[in-house]
Design brief:
It is a single chain. The protein is α/β, with parallel strands linked by helices. About 40% of the residues lie in helices and about 15% in strands. It starts with 8 loop residues before the first strand and ends in a 10-residue tail after the last helix. It has twelve helices and eight strands. Helix 9 (about 220-230) links the parallel strand 7 (about 205-210) and strand 8 (about 230-235). It has helices at about 15-20, 30-40, 65-70, 85-90, 110-115, 120-135, 160-170, 190-200, 220-230, 255-265, 275-285, 295-300, and strands at about 10, 45-50, 75-80, 100-105, 140-145, 175-180, 205-210, 230-235. An eight-stranded parallel beta barrel has the order 1-2-3-4-5-6-7-8, surrounded by five helices.
Length: about 300
């Protein structure tokens, strides 16, 4: 049975989740210009920066400067990723430049250890403190659970264990929980089952789907989540992104492809598809190589008018 919503929210994560995996250096000026383009597509939520140690992800070391310089419409909410208390300390130095902060953990012990060198319990203990501080600052607090659909090191990840982490995040004050298909291991059947369960158990928070297209199933998984009733998604223009742990975990689903699919289904996104495609093409020009988004090449679907 379909519980398809008539409208969805999309958060653009390319400026953080996408850029951090790019080998080419992206200048602060180019980042600001691309984010400004994204802010004029109709997208109302953009993940802009991460306050991780600069030596770990040099590409994002200019996050504070990017936040100071971007110029997007007032109704666009900007999000930053917070790895720990120290990261929040640094983010709060530019508190006036963003609206939401995201904390995260991996559902898989092995992935969490390789990603942040902590056990899941250690990460969650600090996340609880960080979430409280975020809320005390009057910021929106989101939480992201990586490897929600499978781990390249451990294999199957127990659904109940993932949803228990989500419930702990909700208790800590997160008002949005994102479930990440970090290495592209989800399939449409399981995605539908998972989001059906998640929406039943997490009735007081926004449930967000974050799929990667590593194995070409990203849009199919997004469709399956939509049919389960999910109305919140994350994606990246140009299909940028991936996961540095392990290698080979390629990009997020492309924002413009996701918008195109939803629009053809009659699902409102609030996003101008032609403008989103132009933003992705701008990113392609900055990087100097072809990106893997389909809509960059094909453009929007154009239906010929029936004039009789």
């Amino acid at each position: 049975m379909s519980h398809r919503p008539s409208a969805v929210h999309i958060r653009e994560v390319g400026p953080r989740d996408g850029f951090q995996n790019e080998p080419e250096h992206i200048s602060t000026e180019d980042k600001v210009r691309l984010i400004n383009e994204l802010g004029r597509t109709g997208l109302e939520r953009i993940e802009v920066a991460s306050f991780v140690r600069p030596d770990l992800i040099p590409q994002l070391s200019d996050g504070a400067e990017v936040l100071r310089r971007v110029d997007v419409p007032d109704d666009v909410k900007l999000m930053v990723l917070i790895p720990n208390n120290k990261g929040l300390d640094n983010a709060l130095k530019v508190r006036e430049t963003f609206h939401e902060a995201a904390i995260f953990v991996s559902a898989s012990e092995t992935h969490n250890k390789k990603n942040v060198n902590r056990t899941v319990r250690e990460s969650m203990d600090e996340n609880t403190v960080v979430a409280r501080r975020i809320r005390e600052e009057g910021l929106g607090c989101a939480a992201v659970i990586a490897t929600s659909f499978g781990c390249p090191y451990e294999g199957e990840v127990n659904m109940d264990a993932v949803l228990e982490l989500a419930e702990r995040f909700a208790e800590a004050g997160a008002t949005e929980i994102g479930f990440g298909d970090t290495t592209g291991m989800a399939n449409p059947g399981y995605a539908n089952e998972f989001f059906t369960a998640a929406l039943q158990r997490l009735r007081d928070v926004e449930v967000t789907a974050h799929f990667h297209n590593t194995r070409g199933q990203g849009l199919a998984n997004a469709f399956a989540a939509l049919e389960a009733g999910c109305n919140s998604f994350e994606s990246s223009f140009g299909e940028l992104g991936g996961c540095p742990v392990p290698p080979g975990s390629t990009g997020n689903i492309a924002t413009e492809d996701l918008v195109s699919m939803f629009h053809e289904m009659g699902v409102d996104t609030g996003v101008s598809l032609p403008t989103a495609i132009e933003a992705a093409r701008s990113a392609q020009s900055v990087l100097g190589r072809k990106l893997t988004s389909h809509s960059i090449v094909a453009g929007p679907v154009e239906w010929a008018s029936n004039t009789g």
